[in-house]
# Entry
Amino acid sequence: MKPSESNSEWLTRKRLIDPKLIAAGWRIVPFRPDTPLTSYDRCAVEEFETEHGPADYALCVDGQILGIVEAKKLTLGPQSVLTQAERYSKGATSSSLNFRGYRVPFLYSTNGEVIWHHDIRNALGRSHTISQFHTPDALAELLAKDFDVSCQALLQTPNDHPRLREYQREANAAVEKAISDHKHQMLVAMATGTGKTFTMVNQVYRLMKAEVAQRILFLVDRRALAAQAVLAFASFEPEPGLKFDRIYEVYSQRFQRGDFDEDEKFDPRVLPSSYLTDPQPGHAFVYVSTIQRMTINLFGRNAIMASGDEEVDEDASQLDIPIHAFDLIIADECHRGYSTQESAIWRKTLDHFDCVKVGLTATPAAHTMAYFKDIIYRYEYERAVREGFLVDYDVVAVNSNVRMNGIFLNEGEQVEVVNPVSGAKQLDLLEDERQFDSAKIEHDITSPDSNRKILEEVKKWMLEHEQRYGRLPKTLIFASNDLPHTSHADQLVDRARDIFGRGDSFAQKITGRVDRPLQHIREFRNRPAPTIVVTVDLLTTGVDIPDLEGIVFLRPVKSRILFEQMLGRGTRKGEHFPDKSHFVVFDCFDGTLLEYFKNATAITAEPPDGEPCTIVEIIEDIWANRDRDYNIRRLVKRLQRIEKEMSGEARDMFAVHIPGGDVGKYASDLPRKLSDAFVDTMSLLRDKVFQDLLINYPRKERRFIVAYETEDTVTSSWLVRGIDGKEYKPDDYLTAFAQFVRENPQQIEAIRILLQRPKDWSTKALSDLQQKLAATPQRFNKENLQRAHELHYQKALVDIISMVKHAANEQLPLYTAEERVKLAMAKITSGKNFTPEQVQWLERIEGHLAENLTIDPDDFDTLPVFNRVGGWGRANNVFAGQLSQLIHQVNEAVAL
# Structure
């Protein structure tokens, strides 16, 4: 022991640091001046002499000093002690290594709990905390790598994959620069549907090819996302004719046969355990895993939390995984962790590994930022819509009296009471009136009439969509819960099947409770049925359904992260339906959900929901006099909550400890008792039997009521969501359009043509008009304008010319395109005689105009309706060489 070393520091080394070194594969041996350095292999040499004094430990591998560990007592923070390790590194002149005067490359400082590590070889290298010491093999591997040379090779390699979009190249460049700058943690924020996974698959290939990173962990939080990621790697073709998994190994967890399409000729390989427990320098592979599985591998099954719909892998087991098992971790959907406890679990899992960590998310949150530190690249939803890579959405605000105001039951009303445990049902007559506020809907009570009427509003839109586009839109409904016997999801599925009458396959539930949920998700994406899917949590994040055109919020949401992820299910452009121009959001809380989240910031400020200290921990804090007054108040509130939730049986059990089992009175008296007789009062609170009762007391039996007689009043109103994020009611939308038309004839030539120079109307003018209107902040596209006119004027399919003219002068009539063209053709043909062949050509022209509102000479030779009967040459002959004048007259008449 050094003369200056305190006993507490020595104890820290023996009790805390030595075991950690031994666990990492180091043999603790004392320094002996007469022992040559070549004799030390895989040894942590204590009190190793340097020219600047003895280092606490010198980590030697194969006769070479690779690391120095400086220890301090538990009460000291070890970060600042790294400078002492640097001094010893410079003084270790017996080492053959030399990095800018440092003779030992890998430095550590620790107090037995926290370990700081610094790779001193590069001046830009940054010190950081690690969870365990590196193994001897890890240090040997680190020494053999020339990270900076690999990074230079990476930066000089063109990123020219033909499928990459420009913003995806920007994201790759940002990641590569951050890694080259020796950043360990970074965040990439890209809107849902913009190809985060594809971007990262390309990134992984570039990093592996340049040997910047060879062992890659791709972490997800859903099995569905794991399946998608595995396919993304397997289908990616980084080199012409070569798939990714033919160049590098791709592994995953075990999937079921039905998790992949039959035509997806890919058999995922399960990662050998030795790849985790005994990482080798020659390994170059990608491992796709759920974070739940990796947590089990690291900390055992007791470490994970039940996560709603997500099943836990039965074959996962705890393994001894060293911290250098991976060079790079990509954490997909890293915004996850809605509670503090969940957040702590995924942080602990990520923190175990000493490697570069890249977080991917569409919704950067405060707690995500706190971990990954820097957003190195951002591609926002608004920009993606503006650049045409994603679609925007319209809003239908559904006003339900039940959803907004709750349910009032009258005396004498008959209800059905369901036992949520057994599913037993019985009818009951109310002997007094009862009020349930809106927060209790679908948890304590349901109104079948309310669910039916809301789904009927959805049906109206779906049928209108079918009439317009020739297909029923794929629609995702978010239910409040999927609890046994009282499942809101089940009720919605049954109602949808009744209302639409298209069979069971038309409407299905996809939650963690269904058999093979991944197979159902795949069918929803790739097949015509189901058209309607009801879910709760399973489809809230990451799952790719490009053809989704409707999202129904029947689940109240308070988390902005969750809300934006749920919205993100609809933002992708269509795959089977390339004409998908937008999706529709049904806010079944009268638009209040969207209003609540209207002023969304790029970084969500909300913290994860707090997972409070246990009641036992609060009691111990009171005993230890830690913030006593605050913790007494917390304990009183916990006891009051127990009073409200406990059953009669629990009251009898509490009566053994407190008078009459009156927990409420005990809670209110507790501050006084602790003040007057602290030790005696604490003796009960710290009693293990009493504490067990405080945690595991029998709860009151939950009763669920089906209010068959409650009738809901449900209406809906359509809103347009502009690029500016504002929502417009039809009246306000048309008012804004009228103002725009009156103020912009000089800026948009086509408006001036329609209002002042109809003789100049042409296909170019129409195209210019439609493009510039759609690009306005209010999204004045044809579909939105037609919908607004239909709702306000009860006039369907109003043509764009009528809309502009009526906006400028409300006295002018509104026509459909067909009506306008008939009037125009009547003007052109009035009082004239035509041959039968000329009449046929006029009918063809009229049909074309009804679809397009203009006609050009080029149309006669490019469109089948004209060119198959002779095109321009024949038509011009039929009209005796006057076809050009006729077209000009027709276009002008249409624009009048």
Q: What stands out?
A: DSSP finds 36 helices and 29 strands in the chain. The CA atoms of residues 447 and 708 lie 6 Å apart.
